[in-house]
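Case study.
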Amino acid sequence: MLIFECPYCGVLADETDLAAGGEAHLKRFGPGSSDDEFEAYLFNRENPKGVHFERWRHINGCGKWFNAARCTVTMEVFGTYPAQTLEPPTEIMNNISVKRPGWKWKEFS
Amino acid sequence: MKKYSAFAVAREALRDHLGWERAWRSPEPQNEYDVIIIGAGGHGLATAYYLGKNYGITNVAILEKGWLGGGNTGRNTTIIRSNYLQDPSAAIYEKARSLYENLSQDLNYNIMFSPRGVMMLAQTQHEIRGYERTAHANALQGVSTEFISPQKVKKLCPIINIDGPRYPVLGALWQPRGGTARHDAVAWGYARACSDMGMHIIQQCEVTGVNTVDGKVVGVETTKGAIACKKIGIVVAGHSGVLADMAGFRLPIESVALQALVSEPIKPCMDVVVMANTVHGYMSQSDKGEMVIGGGADGYNNYSQRGSFHHVEETVRALVETFPIISRLKMLRWWGGIVDMTGDRSPIISKTPVKNIFINCGWGTGGFKAIPGSGWAMAELIAKGEPGPLAEDFRVTRFREGQFIDESVAAGVAH
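After joint prediction, the assembly is written out as follows.
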C-alpha cells in the first residue's frame, strides 16, 4: 500500500486517505494557445515507466493538494512537497538522481 | 500444421500421443520483414492473423518481450459483450463478438467460446435510465440486447440477492449472446494459425528502439539485434507510452493497474456473467468452477502489475452483498494487469506522426472482448495505410478535434 507524508500536516497517509490527481507540473494553456499546446495540456501525458511526478489530495485528512515523486515500477516514493511550486525541490531531484541515474522528465531532469 | 479433429484425437490415442506437433514455431529473427507487430498478445496476434488471412501479407514478425499472451490477454476476466452506447464502439465490439462465434472453427482451435449471456445490473434510477437508453441504441445498431426486470434477473441468476439493503437490483441490461471464452486459447489459437501461415513469433525479444529515416520507419532495435521492416504495428497495451517515446511521439494515455481474482472452485452455481457497475464488481464462474471476479482500476500510474489491496476489499465487499453465497469462499489467486487508459476511455487504432508506424492501444479495462474486431480493423489499417470504417473513428487525432467516443459514462467503471 502506498504511503505518503503529507507536506502540510506531516501525517503519514496511506492511499485510502488520499485521492490521486494525475500528472503534476502540467503547463496550462488556455485561450490564444495553439491547437497543439491545448491538446497536449488536456490529454497527452508523460506516463513514464519510472520516475513520475504526480498530484495527490489528502482527502481524508487536511484536504489539501500536494505533489509527490514516485517510481511507477517499484512504487518507491522519493519525496512529497507542496503543490505551490513550479519545480520539485532540489533535495528530491538529487535523491532521484542518486537512485535512478539517467532519469528524465520533460522540463527538468 | 496438422489439423485438430476428433479423428486426430483417436489416431493419437492409438499411438501413445507421439504424433502431436508444436502448435507454433519459435524461429530466430530474420534481418528483414514487411511488417513487424510489436506485442504478441491477443490484439497483436489477431492483427497478424487478419493481415495474412484478409490481405495475404505473411512476411510478418510478431515480437514479444515476455511470453506469448502473458500480459493482459492472460490476466482479464474473459467477458465478451458488445452492448455499447456509441455507434463506433458498438460496431467494433459487435464485429469482435460475431467473429468470436466462429473463431474455434476458423482457427481450428477450441477457444471455448461460451455465449452464456451477460447482464449489467441497474442498481440506481440513474442506471435504469442509462441502460434503457443503451438498449434503444443497441436496437438501432443491430446489437441484440434488452432491459429486463429484477424478477427475470433472479430467474437467470438465482444466487443473486435482488433486494440488497443498500443497492437493490432494479433491472438489468441483458445481452444473451455475450459470454466468455478461454483467454489463453484465443492467443494460442491465433499464434498457431499465424505460425502456419509462415509468420515468425519471436518471444523473449524486447524492442529497445525504433529506427526512423526522414520521419519514416525503417526498423527496430531489439534484444536479439536490429531488424529492418517496412511497417510497424505497435500493439502493447500498458507499455504503449514507452514504445511511443522510442518512436518520438506522445499519446493521450496513462497506464494504471486493473486487478482480478478467483475463488477456490465450487460446484456450478451461476451460468451467466453479472456485472454491477455501481458497486464496482463483476463475476462469472469458470469451467473449472472458480468464481472469476473483476474489480476497479487504481487511480494512479503503475507499471508493476500489482493493484492496491484496498480495491480488492471494496470489490469483494460489494459482491458479498450482491451474492451472499460467496461470503465463505476462499480466494485462490489475485493478480493485476497494466491497462492503458485514454482521455475518453475509448481505444486508439490509428496512424501516428511517424510514417508507417500504426498504433492499436487504449483498450483500457475492456480489451479482451474486442480482440478479433481490433485485429480485423488494425490489419486493414496496416495493409492499406488508411483506416477502414471500423477504425476511422478511433484515430488518435480525435482528441485534438474534440470528436470523443465517450463511453466512460456509458460503460461505467467496468468494461
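Observations recorded in class. The longest helix of chain A spans residues 90-99. The two ends of chain A are 27 Å apart (CA to CA). We will return to this complex in the next lecture.
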